[in-house]
Amino acid sequence: MFSIFIQQEFRQMTRSPLAALLFLFLALCLGFGIWNGRQAVATRQTAIAKLLDKQQTDLLTGKSIADSVAQGLKKTPAQWWRSPLNPVAVGGIWRGGRTLAVEPAPLALLATGSSDLAGEAQHVNIVRIAQRSSSDFENPVNLLFGSFDVAFVVAFLLPLFVIALTFRLVSGEREQGTLALLLSQPQPVRRLFTLKMLARFALLGGLVLLLLLPMLLASGVSTEQAGVWQFVGLMLLYALFWFLFALAINLLGKNSQFNALACVGGWLLFAVVVPSLANLLAERLHPLPSRADYLNEMRDLEKTVEAKRAELVDQLYRDHPQMPRKAEGQEKTWSEEYREEMAVMDFEQGLRREVEARHDRAVERQADFLQSFAAWSPLLAAHEQMTELAGTSRRALQASQTQVRAEQSKWAAFFREKIDKGQDLTVADYHAIEQFPAQIRAAAQNSSSGWLWLLAQCAVAAGVVFWIGRHSRSSLAIS
Amino acid sequence: MIFTIANHEFRSMLRDRRFLLAAALLSLLFVLSLLGAYQYHVSLQNQHAHATQTARQQWETQKDKNPHSAAHYGTYAFKPVSPLTFFDRGLDAYTGNTLFLEAHKMNEAQHRTVADRHDFARLGNLTPAFVLSILFPLFIIVLGFGTVAGEREEGNLRLLMAQGLRPRDLFLGKSIGLWYAVLLLAVPFFALGAVGLFLPGARAEDWSRYLLTGLVYLLYLGCFVHLTLLISAWARGRNVALVASLGVWIFICLIVPKAAVNLARWQHPTPSWQSYRDGIEEDLEKGVDGHDPSDAYTEKLEKETLKQYGVDSVQHLPFNWWGFMMQKGEEHETFVFQKNKDKLLGIYDRQQKIHEAASVLSPYLLTNIASQRLAATDVATYFHFLAAAERYRIQLVGELNGDLTKNFKYDDWDTKRGKAFFASNARFDYQPLAFSEVQKNVGSALLMLALWWLASGLLGLWAFRHLKVLG
């Protein structure tokens, strides 16, 4: 039975110029989305390569100077704060440090997510982490409109293709005068139209696969990549929701015009109204804390730190009696100066982290609130899951930040030891520095909340179809 | 005849439940957007006022220090809130809110609001401008898609044309009828949207900006009135008219803006962090380093200065050499940063040209450009603020280096300045872009929008002249 429907629908579609036009447009949109994704990933990779090249050049220069000094061919540079042998200068407080590039995940080309706002790298030094972000120089207009990526095509345009293919599923039969014939079949109405809907779903799904998979392969994404099939599955599940939604509207037994308006109304609700209202409520119920106040608060910490400076330095020498302390007024070496400075900076960083954590908690409260709206919109659920799979969601980018923090701790510990001992860096130290990672990968997230919400939404839509279908023979006959 | 058709059209719409439902929904969303805008605007204004006051207080009460150390301590400038942000937030969330002003560096503005927000925040913000530019055209489509296609399906069109009705009159009548419905909502919306002009900080010229904004949106909505009628005249039936109108809406409001962004990026890529940085580093090395007396350019400056004043050592100069050198370094650094910033602006301008070229396909882009410009939430206004902040930075650092040069002896790093001195330093007083400047910038977008309105109208008229009375 199903194969008959498939054949019939296939024949109808191949003969319909509108369907051909729609499929052509879908193919163009997917192709353009993938091409844009490739461009974005390539741009990011070039930016990373530039950062890492510069880092490698500086490292090799430093290593070569350390080697020359060790062999007595050169003297230690006079300005210690610029010397490639000095742990403060290389480990970094004011300059120096290490760049950790955040390499895009394999499926990053499918969804831009927050990656156009996040940095392509993080710069760690002895005391802090800073972003290296080309988005600092991005035209804000580009950021406002966002990228035309596959996630946009799937989340926003695919439902409209589904609606265009299905809004006349039942009403079209009536308007052509073939509904009575269909209703006279010894089959329940629900089953008949569900099969018709599934046939269209299978055709659209098959076609999308035929289009997308070769495009992905051509872009260097292997189908063995676990995320690819999850992405495809997600896309099909999302399309299924819209087929079920359109079927439910069709089964109400109204005319095509009503169906089209109701389907587009639904799309508008899930794609435009729910996200907008979610943002409005999030701003009202969980407003973002002021960044300006945050900065001023950070600045006020400097006074607290200054007031505590003497006490902190005393504490340092009490805790480390082996460290010799110079009397007031005596000239200090860089090591003596900076181990005191580090003790003060540790205290300052502790205070800064408290302010940051308070700010981050408020930011997270709003983000969690917004995320909960995935339950109310299949578009949000699908979008969330697509960016998770592409490793470009806010959560995925935050996960990479955890790795960066761990690397910063190791980096700081390495140089702190040298500073405390007042040791210059050697060639062996440079070998150790080279072992620090220069790249980490933005990982696709295993979160499945988007999947679960989408499954639940499909189940609800199927339930509605079932319920309407039970009562639809009479309503279809009457209308 | 035209007004008879228009009145009839309007009456039919009012009797249609679709009108009541769509109008009620749109009005509800608009009122919600106003409430959201009010909260956003007031909160932003309070934050800005508080932060500005605190930053100044911090500057004045900083620890006693040498003027150049104070220049390194720096201060913050906060992006001001335009009164019309209430209506159109534009790029507000996508541009940095704070700018750290310090010696030797022109920093990038930091902390875009959008970076603190969830990914969903970029999928839609309910603002008055959003309701008018995205949702209102849908209202027009819902009301107008069947205007001609429906008459044809019902056989009325044949009757109308048989009575000798001129296509032009039919087009104008239908168009005016649709306009009645549009104005019935748009006028109260604009009246309500003017609430922002009564909030603190609003200036008299904001009224002119707002009125011009109203004109922009009316032209934009007019384009959709024409397009809807055009499609309705072309389509065989209501179904096709509805699907085609929605397709055009999606193309204009969703597809073209995003595609334009990608094309602009592809044609004129913005530099990467490292490229931008390399450009600055390279240029900086070609001039005086204010902190390194052994630098070749500084040595050259020293020789020239000694020669000019006829002395053999910097100690004998009639001013403090260190302050002078730092100020010269500052001037070079400012030149370098400005040069690179100008290059970046050049790229933005070229990207903007592509956005404007794409607006041939999308009046939404034009409306966006004009509305943001008038609301002072566009790139030009943002860069105007950055430039003003940079001028202030130069002035402040100049004052501090000037004090070091004139009032300090050579190598005197121990004398410190305190509260009275810091309180006397210049304040940052940002004056927004003058309306006359804005008018110049908006002119081209407005003209293009008027052309769009005219062209879509002429096309509509053409479609009515070639109307098929039978489906």
**What is the C-alpha radius of gyration of chain A, as a whole number of Å?**
30 Å
The neighbouring-strand order within the major sheet of chain A is: 3-2-1-4
Distance between the termini of chain A: 27 Å
Task: Give helix % range of chain B.
Answer: 55-70%
Question: In angstroms, what separates the terminal alpha carbons of chain B?
Answer: 25 Å
Main structural class of chain B: mainly alpha
Strand content of chain A: under 5%
Let me know the average pLDDT of chain A: 88
Indicate the topology.
The complex is a heterodimer of chains A (479) and B (471).
Chain A lengths: L1 H14 L1 H54 L16 H5 L6 E6 L17 E4 L4 E4 L7 H6 L4 H17 L4 H6 L2 H5 L5 H30 L7 H25 L5 H30 L5 H29 L14 H38 L6 H13 L3 H28 L5 H9 L3 E3 L7 H30 L1
Parallel strand pairs in A: 1-4
Antiparallel strand pairs in A: 1-2, 2-3
Chain B lengths: L1 H14 L1 H44 L6 H7 L1 E4 L19 E5 L2 E2 L21 H17 L4 H6 L1 H7 L4 H27 L10 H31 L3 H30 L5 H12 L11 H14 L11 H38 L4 H13 L3 H29 L11 H6 L10 H31 L6
